[in-house]
């Protein structure tokens, strides 16, 4: 699997898509599956990996990001004729996983009023437009 994940990183870098966020998401997947042979990474093994993530308290969204990159590595390997098939990778529901705890308008204004201009106006624009 390390070879497949290396190929994914190389592809992302060639297309200028490799970011710190992507590297951060690939790292734990590489740590878990890096020494496995690609044929050992079955749908069952991926399901157990997801179960383990959930038992550790990770959200469905985190599991999806990590397994999404795994799936992309498999698809790239198939496109490059390194593999003839890839395991099914389930996508978990992310309903109810929306961020919570944003500032209310009064709270935001209390903070923004202490910001130097034009930073305060810039932040107000961001707050109002999302």
From TrEMBL:
Keywords: DNA integration, DNA-binding. GO terms for molecular function: DNA binding. Gene3D superfamilies: 1.10.150.130. It comes from the Bacteria. GO terms for biological process: DNA integration. Residues 1-78 form the Core-binding (CB) domain. This is Core-binding (CB) domain-containing protein. It comes from Candidatus Acidiferrum panamense.
């Amino acid at each position: 699997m390390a070879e497949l994940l290396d190929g994914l990183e190389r592809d992302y870098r060639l297309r200028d898509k490799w970011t710190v966020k992507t590297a951060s998401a690939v790292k734990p997947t590489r740590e878990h599956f890096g020494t496995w042979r690609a044929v050992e990474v079955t749908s069952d093994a991926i399901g157990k990996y997801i179960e383990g993530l959930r038992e550790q308290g990770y959200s469905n969204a985190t599991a999806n990001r990590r397994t999404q990159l795994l799936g992309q590595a498999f698809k790239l390997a198939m496109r490059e004729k390194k593999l003839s098939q890839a395991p099914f990778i389930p996508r978990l529901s992310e309903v109810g996983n929306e961020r919570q705890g944003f500032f209310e308008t009064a709270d935001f204004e209390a903070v923004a009023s202490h910001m130097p201009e034009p930073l305060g106006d810039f932040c107000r624009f961001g707050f109002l437009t999302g």
